[in-house]
Specification:
Length: 1155
Amino acid sequence: MRLTWILGACALGLSCKAQAFPVVIAGGAMLLGGPSTVIALLIAAGVFGYLRFCSGKHGKVKSLALGFAAGLAVLALVLNDQRASQLDANFIDSGSPAERITEIPFREVALDEQAQMPTAMDPAEFIDSLAKRTIRAVRIDPMPEPFFQDFGNGVSAKELGKSPAKLLALIRESSVPVVLIDQYGSSAAAISEALKARLGIEVRFLVGGTKSLHPYGWKHLANEEDPRAILPSQFPKVIAATPGLQIISDTTRDQFEHDGWLHGDMISDLPTFLAGLDNIVATIGDRPILISAAEGYFTGNTWVILTLLRSRGLDPQFILPTEDELLVKPPYYRHFKNDERLFGNSETFSYLERKPRVVFLDFQPAADWATTRERIRGTVHIDMEKVARGQMAEELAKLDPTATYAGLGYDRRSSYHSLLAGEYLSEKGAGWLGINTEPELFSRERLSNPDLYDGWREFSAKARNELGEAGFKAVSLLGDGIKGYLLFSALLALVLTIAFCATPTVAAKGLVAVAALGVFQVSSWTLEEWVRADVPTDWVVAVQLTTGLLSGLCWSARRRNRKRRFTVPEGVRPTELPEKIRLLAEAAEHGFHVLPGVVITPALVNSTGRQLPRWARMKPTIVRSAARSESCEATTIGIYNSLYAAGEHQVWASAAQVIAEIERSGEVGMCFVQPRIQGQTFGVAMFGTEADDHMIICEGGHADQVTAGTAATSRFAVPIWDVNRLDPRDRAVCRVLLRLQRVMGATSIEWARSLSGKLTILQVSTDQLGRIGLKHRISKNTRRFVVAPVAHTGKLEAAVLAACAIKGEQLTVGRYRLVQAKSFIGGLLSLHQDISSAVDYARMSPAIAFPSAAIIEAFETEHRERLAQRTLWLPDLSAETEQLIAAVTHDLGRVRDVYGRFNRLATVAAELRIKARIKGFSRPLSSTVLGAALEEAAADARGDLLERMGCLSLNGFAIQGKSSLDGDDLLGGVIQATDSPMAWLKDECAVQVMYELKRLRPLLAEIEQRGAVDSLLAALDVSVGTDTDSRVAALETVAMQSRPLPLANLLSGHGRDPGRNAFVWGVPAKGVCLRLASKDEFQPGDALLIDRAEMSYLPLIARAGALVVREGSALSHLMQHARRLRVPHVVGADIGDQKDSALVFISASGEVCRA
């Protein structure tokens, strides 16, 4: 199960990173296998979540919540994918060519005609002759100026149309014949023909132009086994490993304008290369060479360039081309550090607002730049033609290396040039934010026009800036550069994974997951701030994934090790272990520090092959009793001794002694051995009982001073809801107790604390004696309640009536009922819930605002079913007490589901003043009908008549004897009719509850007679405390004021702090007057005087009227027995010179004085 959560957390980290750094160029492919992985994870999570959470109680609600969460996850992925596609669109779209003016004053010569001309030269002869230097290539440019870098031997066709002087000069200067070349051969053929016709000069030309060399290269020159070939995926390593490398990029003008293809700073098309071959070789000198022509339309050019460079004595490397593959090959877009940094206009706005030194780079042609130059402020233009001539590095070198830059990607060409600029600037130490692929959508009006200005975007920009800078500073503390950020990422993943694994509930895990999203987003902003670190995203994700998996696996291993905290003999199943051991083992599984232990049974003591772990043989140990009644029943607290032992022989001897003591009391003997703790603070923390049931009481001292009661201890007591006001060491103890109560129902613990503050759990107890409603006091202490105006005759009567209401909406404190106050929104929600449970909205007309008629019809249907159940239900008063309690709770549950639900519906509708009318509706109120019958009877006979009618007053309901009419809910003796359906419904529900309580009276009386009231109160789960004298005064005051107060205020009362020097428990507000007697002079009913709270007084305390303890612990074993027996006591009492047999007065404040 834990491994599933860990994998889920790691998947969450991946998704967060994919969102923070969109992998849009290669599609992301996610580290685990692409988009299909996301779908698989969602399906797996959905199936697991449904099977794990959507069965059992509230299954439909859980299914709806899971479906909603899954829908949000799918929506987030779809939106993220759409956003990635939108950002990637301009990176994929081809660029538009610059405006061209081409005037070639020569006719067009078709390829077939070229081949028939006498001056034609085929590709084989051309390559062979050029390699042997027997010819000189002269290119014919279709444009007035060369587009790429000019290496000489070129003439413009337009210039030739005016004057052939430049071409004739080249012919005269050449020592070898001249061959004219262009891209397609047409211009060269026409010029060759014109020279012969007009000047009589015969100049040959290349048939088909340089385009014909592409198939020739593949057919005659290609050698894919060439040892100097490298694969496209290898070229970044070659570039990095070869200093001074000269890259020759072959392309065409069309290809460059559409795709931006270039490598290095020597960029040319094939005509330029062939014409300037010797000049290029001279420029390169002895530098190593890499031919990059594998990405072009004409990939055979690679073999042509390779052959010619080798003919000049050079040995270049080359990227292995593919004959049938054209642009775009993914490897050329990958393998760049910055190729994933794409952003849109929202980020552009943010950068402009929070990074005033951001400079945007625009690589458009001059004509396009003229129309967009004012769009984004702080933009530097580097003309496309300068890039084509290899001047990008030269232009970038002029920029400020301390500034931060971003590219503008209008299309594939400008995006690719921006990408190369980012690589160059990052290497020079400048900051690089990435490429905005939506610049054409950005408008400066939004920055300058107040009506279009977005204040929220400004706030988010500033927030991102502050959080990013804070993260940057945090990362800077860990180290500089990539190592610091990777260490930061690892620590981030470690903390979040541990937090995710450590949280005990699904809701808490969800909160951690949401926090992880926020933390990873801040992490991405931090990376934006650290623009010079240039951290590859895949490294970050890999580090976080690895750290998350390793820490999760370590956590799982740690949990498995906790389950083996206790060594159990063979043949003993975990369910057979006593509660004392089982609860400690469970606490260890939940992450609390528990010492290791060895369980010893009588059979193991007498076994010949018995063996103890090394620590139990070598270290001082303690042999602790483990009777089955310990930790779950208060009757055995401190009865059995624990013995210290040193060495294996003493351990076995002590174990035999402890087991024998347990067996003499009639229980199954068992014990366990743990390491002895020395030199630490030991103590007990427990939830109070009855009079102080809203408190956490804690005492600490040395060794066993607290549990044995042999000395004074340090003590504090605090309300459950005020734990946070304690100092850290005391607060830690209380929080451990609260968490143990939440996860395993603990009510008290014995603990030890080291000098460093580490807590060790020594014992966990779950006895509930005097602690009914503890979970309500913990979880609902901040909710607001109104006190019902009349107190009931007893606490059971109040609890039974509260159990008739919707679960959790009414609680009791002794004889007082508390009704939860609802907000307007809470009232609407409960009203909608009740109506939905009674009425099918789908079958109703949408014109009906409030379905009064349908509600009344639904009530009458369920009421008839309930009447039939009443007739058939006959309680068996001779059944076991547990069966009687189960019968009462089940029947009250049915009452709550019918009358409690409809009563709440009618009450909330009235409080919200909803107009609920039914045409022609008019019915008498049942309560007034009963009231009229009572009015006709004599006053002294009303009670008997009420009992015979089977009708009771709710507030005057009594289980034993006749019901009281005090605070009667019934109206006077006049029958009243109402035309309000909700008023009638509320009245009818109250009357039917009266009938239900009348029917339950025999069962309740039987349970009360058997002394099982507390068990029934625990089953009803509505009580939150007892009505002590201080609480009664506070509750009556609040009841008269009729105002809602937090439950904590109602439970606090006007009592004293039990953490004072004299600890008082159970002494009534008016005090008690008893004879004070020592152990030797004690008589039943006396106030027993105890010097120290030792267990030797246990046989006497059950007969004492009170206990006066001079010294000792209020949480010692003896005082816990006094609580169980409900004996009032004062611990730490100052009795002055009082003597034995003196009559003393014990006040509620703990003062003991002569009566």
